[in-house]
Amino acid sequence: MIQDDENSEDTVVPELVVDEEHIEEAAPEPVDLPTATVVELPEDPAEAVPILLTALGQAKAEANGYLETVQRVAAEFDNFRKRSIRERDDIVDRASQRLIERLLPTLDSFDAALAFQPQSEGEEKLLSGMRDTHRLMMEALAVDGFEPIAAAGVAFDPAVHEAVAGPTGDGEGELMVTEMRRGYTLRGRVVRAALVAVGHA
């Protein structure tokens, strides 16, 4: 025979407490949905048809209005997205160009140093190290679209060349240039025009 536990009456069962305030906070906000228009139809089918056609036309017009609103919002959002991308790219381009402009004196110093003719083995090793450093720097900048402007021995292009010496020679043939200071472009835009002397080919 199983005896009842004497302490069974003293056992406390935990009470489930429901926090109604938090339940209300977690509940989703009610959404206003368009209510269906109730159309009362007469019993005579002949009289009901024009009423149904009118209601259908009104519903179609309302649906077209919703569609136009959705299309307008979608177009505005697409324009906003494209404008944001353009503004972001412009900010990146301006920041990159400012950095490049600060580096131009350093690049000019490299060009002047690399034009030096070494007179000893030690000078040749030093110049070789400078060439490697210059090459690595130009490769790193080229990743962002930074490129030198071709100048030596090419035809004069006023869009990328700045002439500081007039044409020389017999006055015939295509205008060619001799580079005096290197110019650069960033993603196709001129950061600094190449400084050149112009002469006839």
Your description of this structure?
The protein is an alpha+beta fold and 201 residues long. It has a domain at 145-201: Nucleotide Exchange Factor Grpe, Chain A, domain 2, CATH 2.30.22. The chain has helices at 20-26, 45-114, 121-142, and strands at 146-148, 161-165, 175-181, 184-186, 189-192, 194-200. The strands form two sheets. A three-stranded antiparallel sheet has the order 1-4-5. Mean pLDDT is 79; it is low at 1-9 and 22-28.
Cα radius of gyration in angstroms: 40 Å
How much beta, percentage-wise?
5-15%
Report the CATH topology name of the domain at 145-201: Nucleotide Exchange Factor Grpe, Chain A, domain 2
CATH structural class of the domain at 145-201: Mainly Beta
SS-based structural class? alpha+beta
Largest beta sheet: strand ordering: 1-4-5
Tell me, what's the shape? elongated
> End-to-end distance, in Å?
123 Å
Give the CATH H-level superfamily of the domain at 145-201. Answer: Head domain of nucleotide exchange factor GrpE
CATH architecture of the domain at 145-201: Roll
Mean pLDDT: 79
Number of helices: 3
Largest sheet: 3 strands, antiparallel
Q: Give the SSE string.
A: HHHEEEEEE
What is the helical fraction, as a range of percent? 40-55%
